[in-house]
Design a protein that fits this description.
The chain has eleven helices and three strands; from the N terminus they run H-H-E-H-H-E-E-H-H-H-H-H-H-H. With 231 residues, the chain is mainly α. The longest helix has 24 residues.
């Protein structure tokens, strides 16, 4: 499993399966609307159905998968309206976090953002989009955490969770994917300067680049996946 290759093996089979399925979804193996077949995943990963089922429940709580009686689990497929609502929610919460947090950004926050950006650059060079996404999230939430508003951060994480699949699909199809990490250099510089207005402007541009693409992605049809050969 990918978790084992990272050298940070999860403590339980459920955590390992959860990490692997989540990684597979965000890497594009399972598309929005795709059916997920627990028995085949259990056989592929060499585990019983129990950790697969538990992992899928956790992914359901993140909004990445959904369950329906008689249909089983499938990768969540959001409507255009839902995606745009999530983007609007992100805008409200991120702007509030920046306004409250920018004056309180510490050298430690800047160091965490810098480390995350260096990791993003490494994963970009390796073309490891799933790991890039994890570092990307760490970069942004290091900034948002400066606000010291845990309830806001928790809700914002949920909004990111719900749209992660579409964000990762956008990045996989983005023309000239190289350089996507460097686009975060100005955000780091503005954080280092504790420049609230510039941070707000840069994050607005950051969010705005994918809105049109999200409209297109929301209309894509579902694909069935869940076997070792699925893409």
């Amino acid at each position: 499993m990918a978790a084992a290759k990272s050298g940070k093996r999860p403590k339980t089979a459920q955590e390992a399966v959860f990490a692997e399925i989540r990684r597979a979804i965000l890497a594009g193996r399972f598309s929005p609307g795709a059916q997920i077949l627990p028995d085949q995943l259990a056989a592929e990963y060499g585990v019983s159905r129990v950790p697969v089922r538990d992992a899928l429940r956790l992914l359901e709580s993140e909004g990445l998968v959904s369950y329906a009686a008689y249909h089983g689990y499938q990768v969540t497929q959001l409507t255009e309206e839902e995606l745009l609502e999530l983007q609007r929610l992100r805008e409200i919460l991120e702007d509030e976090a920046v306004r409250a947090g920018a004056p309180k950004i510490t050298d430690q926050v800047v160091a965490e953002m810098s480390d995350a950006l260096a990791e993003m650059n490494r994963h970009e060079r390796a073309d490891d989009l799933a790991s890039w996404g994890q570092a990307h999230r760490r970069f942004h939430f290091s900034l948002y955490g400066a606000a010291e508003m845990p309830s806001l951060t928790r809700i914002l994480r949920q909004a990111w969770d719900a749209s992660d699949l579409y964000r990762s699909r956008y990045l996989r199809t983005r023309p000239g994917r190289r350089g996507m990490s460097a686009g975060h250099d100005p955000i780091l510089a503005a954080a280092r300067a504790r420049d609230t207005d510039t941070l707000l402007s840069l994050l607005a541009q950051h969010r705005g680049t994918i809105v049109d693409w999200l409209r297109q992605a929301a209309s894509d049809g579902p694909r069935v996946a869940g076997t070792a050969g699925g893409d």
